Every structure is written in structure tokens, then in C-alpha cells.
Amino acid sequence: MAILKHIDETQNTSAARLQSDIEIWRYELSNTEDRLKIAQLTTVIHVAMHLQHQEALLLPKISTFFLDSYCGAGKWSTDVPVVLENSESTVNFMHKWLLHLLIIYLQSYMKYKCVVRKIGTVIYPRDGDLLVCLSKALHQENKQEYQYTVVQPPLQDQASTINQAGACINERLLGEIKRLSESQQQPKDLDIDWCISKCDPLIWDFLTRVTQSAREFSGTKQSPTYKHTKKVRRFFIYCLLMYCIQPSYKSPIHLALTDATEVCGGPDS
Length: 269
Prior knowledge:
- By secondary structure, the chain is mainly α.
- It folds into 2 domains: 2-146, no CATH class; 155-265, no CATH class.
- Helix content is 64%, strand content 8%.
- It contains 11 helices and 5 strands, in the order ααβαββαββααααααα.
- The protein has a 3-stranded antiparallel sheet.
- Helix 8 (201-210) packs across helix 10 (224-245).
- The model is unreliable at 1-7 (pLDDT under 50).
């Protein structure tokens, strides 16, 4: 009994330390504007929360999450090397680099093992059983695939979160208006992909998440036409937000309006 009690106390202590570290990382995340640091901390917190629930993760899947955070969802390709940049250096993204990052932050809470080379390395809780953790992760994925359920936090917490998010997005949009107003790069014709590549990645990721349909959220494969339509609509929202904040900033709102109208109503409407 004494041994079982000691094991239980050790697990509770580890869980408390992990929760404390998550809060620290969230605080660091809220106080940085470094694009790479944001992607790193977002990914570490994502993995840590899965470890909290005794769930395993595949490293390639974590890599996808990281690259979506760094580049923006759908704005990177496995065929093109992704170069990670910060104020001090640059490095080509690799799975090994990400694994090393996770070890630095989570070595006290995680184990990793390459069971099948073609599938990739598995990350799972240090105090967990690999088979049990994989089973929990598979069960959770099946629930997300077949049942889309939103668990609403208390209304007061929602209001606080929305207010904080709104203030953050507003501040970054003001920075975008200033940057784009001073920039000489103005498209003569609207090239959606070019324009999106110049957008603030954090704002674009935010717009992508809040405008996801149930099909997109579930990961259902979308047609190229559907993806293009969503990009046009999101870019129009992006431009409209800046125009709403500062009406004197009009470019490229007129071009985005034309394309958005055509996408929504069709060229003959």
C-alpha cells in the first residue's frame, strides 16, 4: 500500500508541475511577438495538453501542427523546405529539430519511441503505458471525426477571452495598416496568394480558425474551388477589418470587394 501511495503522490506532483509549466508557457506566449517563438510555444503547449490526458502523438502530426502555426494553415508544402527564422539565426525545419525542441521543454514529462520507421516517432507520457496512450489517442481521434461537439466555457470566461483576443487582433491590425501604408508593394491586380503571403500570419491564422466550417474543422478533404473561395472571402474580411479601423486605408479593399462579389455571386450574377 505504501508503494502504491508513493506512486500516486509522484504522479500527482508531476501533473501539478506540468500544469504550472503550461501556465508559464502561456504567459511567455502572450508576451512575445516573435513568429518562431509563438509557433514553438503553441506547439509545446499543444503536446503538453495531450500528455496531461495520457494521450500519445505521432511526431509527423506534431510537425504539421507546428508548421500550420508558423506558416499558416495550408501555406506550406512538404515539397518545399521550410526555413525557420528569428532575430538571431535561420534553420531548415526537420522532424529531428522539432523533437529536440520538445525534449528541451518536456523531457521531464515525455518519452519517445520509433516503433515503425515509416510511421514515425511516437511521443507519449513518461509515466504512461504506450499501448494505453495510443488507444486513448485513437479513441479521441474517432470522437473528433464522427462527432463535432463544442464544449462552451462559462459565459464570463468567454467574454474575457474574446475581449483579450479582440484587443490583440486590433493592435496587430493597426500595425498592419501602418506597415502596408508605408510599403511600396501594392498589387495592380489582385493576386490572392501573393497578398496572403504578405498578411500578418497570426491574424490570418485567427481568421482561418474563426471562419472554419464544420467540414473544415473535421478535416474533410476540400476541392480546389472550395479552398480558393474560402481564401477570397477571408482576405476580404482581412481588408474590411483594416478599412473599418481606418477608412483612409482603402487598398486593396476595392480589389478584394470585386473578387469577393464574383466568388459569392458568380461572374454572371
